[in-house]
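Support reply, case 0932

Customer input (verbatim):
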Amino acid sequence: MTHPFLDLAPLSAARFASIEDRVARLLSTEQDVVITQGEALLPLEGAIRAAAGPGTTALNVITGPYGQTFGDWLRDCGATVHDLSVPYDTAVTAAQIRAAFAEHPEIDFVSLVHAEAATGNTNPVAGIAEAVREQGALFYLDAVASIGAEPVLPDAWGVDLCVIGAQKALGGPAGVSAVSVSERAWARMAANPRAPRRSYLSLLDWKERWIDGGRKALLHAPAQLEMLALEACLERVETAGLRTVTARHRSAAAATRAGARALGGGLEPYVHKDAEAAPVATTLRAPSGTVAAELVARALATDPALPLAAGGGALAKEMIRVNHYGAHATRDVVGASLTALGAALAEQGLDVDPAAARRAVQEAWGPAAA
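Our regenerated output:
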């Protein structure tokens, strides 16, 4: 008995290359694009270990948990690391980046997360990139959460290593990811004696055996299901139009923030400024005297399919996440999420106005993005 998910023909090198080309078009990049056969942590770690070493002096920007992870990897590689941490309810600024360069002019590597889905903030990459170009540092960007929710333009910005995944705003699979690599990033890797070789983490293996070989022979058997799912995801985004997809995520974020403010009960956006809030997911601060994880559990009891989660670790007490990305970036899902949270708050004896929240969602979303 045949099965469409099991009885698959081998994925050819030509088809693999064609999917890479579609990822390059998604990023509007002329750089090399390598599709990596794993969740985005694979290229995120692989890129750092390839490009950083004992001679590297890195500025590691921390606006959420992934920035902390990148700092750990950089130190493990032997790099000298200067962390720039900002509160999770805000974003880093280009002025702060320039101040760090002035204090440490030897910095030659910058690691940054574009949008932090875990904390709900987004960083102004265009302005930061200008500062990084002035410094001449290699620029490493985690755009896993931002791709599809807001512009990601490695060529225009001068990003040397730009890592994306399809599992959030693009609405695709989690088991495959990609990284765009500039010529100077390849040169940095080639000059790094500690760059992984003959390793699943190795980007240089893909460069030398795949790209330089004319993309004729794959290094190993590709993950067929994930590659086909990525191809379907890209086709869906191309059909809808990337601008339409990003506009839908902007509307979801604006509607969630407006609806939360109108709902009342002490619920408010966690990220203070609208301009610093990520379109991919909205974080909310639980009212005083409540526990975010308990409110989320009560809300999910009414509908387990809602894209609600409590913050991770210590943030589970104060942070609620509305993960309105991919298929969940709709007005109905945003409205249902706030309605469920309103019911959970009402159970705690707090005064909420669900009707006002629904009106605010409708007005903030607007007819064009419906």
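We compared this against your earlier run and they match. Two observations from our side: The two ends are 43 Å apart (CA to CA). The mean pLDDT is 96. Please reopen the case if you see a mismatch on your end.
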